[in-house]
Design a protein that fits this description.
- It is a single chain.
- This protein is an alpha/beta fold.
- Helices cover 36% and strands 19% of the residues.
- It has one domain: TIM Barrel (Alpha-Beta Barrel), CATH 3.20.20.70.
- Strands 1-2-3-4-5-6-7-8 form an eight-stranded parallel barrel, surrounded by six helices. Strands 9-10 form a two-stranded antiparallel ribbon.
- Strand 7, helix 7 and strand 8 form a beta-alpha-beta unit.
- Helix 5 runs parallel beside helix 6.
- The structure holds ligand LARABZUK.
- The site of the ligand O=C(O)c1ccccc1NCC(=O)[C@H](O)[C@H](O)COP(=O)(O)O has 26 residues, from strand 2 and strand 8.
Length: 220
Amino acid sequence: MESQFRTRIKICCISSPEEARLAIRLGADALGLVGRMPSGPGVVADELAAQVVRATPPPIATFMLTSETRTEDIIAHQRRVGANTIQLVDAVLPETYAQLRLALPAVKLVQVIHVIDEKNLAEALAAVANGADALLLDSGNPNLAIKELGGTGRVHNWQVSRQIVAQSPVPVFLAGGLNAENARQAIETVQPFGLDICSGVRTNGHLDARRLETFLRAIS
Ligand SMILES: O=C(O)c1ccccc1NCC(=O)[C@H](O)[C@H](O)COP(=O)(O)O
């Protein structure tokens, strides 16, 4: 069934104020700033992320991606960057959401679920029950010796993602290997609140205006 709502767009792996301005000008609802990660191409320094956050006007959301899992380290990361949303790319203890809420009441919490199989449905619903404001379904693999926590350029099992969207009481973003060719199909299959894209709108690592325009046209 066709959704009556506009699919929100998060442009991730923003690596400069110029990329942020381009993404906003072309219609991004949210920007993603990737903090220190065990692997992946999109990492930026905290100082640069903070600079982008300061230059980003409302109502654009700034998502700070963190691989930290201890509450105090997540809080310290947020204080360095100042983003209005924390994207937790790894699993955290159940009590972490309440601790973060207490310390950072104005900051929204988005939990990434790396979709591998049906078991991820329970993981997603537990994150919501524990306090996540939104979910983001991605294609990493946290079980590897060197964890993959995003930026893989791979598509995952959208049937599992569809089940998560259908049962989630909070908004769900879909990520992982999206591009202009598969984005419409992704929306129809998964029916997410928003799409998150990194490599599919880049050329040689840089945000590519033409690829982003083509992507946005494909889903409008
Ligand atoms: O890009 C990275 O290096 C990265 C590493 C670890 C976690 C997240 C990372 N990227 C940010 C994202 O969340 C991506 O937008 C998401 O994984 C989708 O990426 P892609 O498949 O390239 O569109």
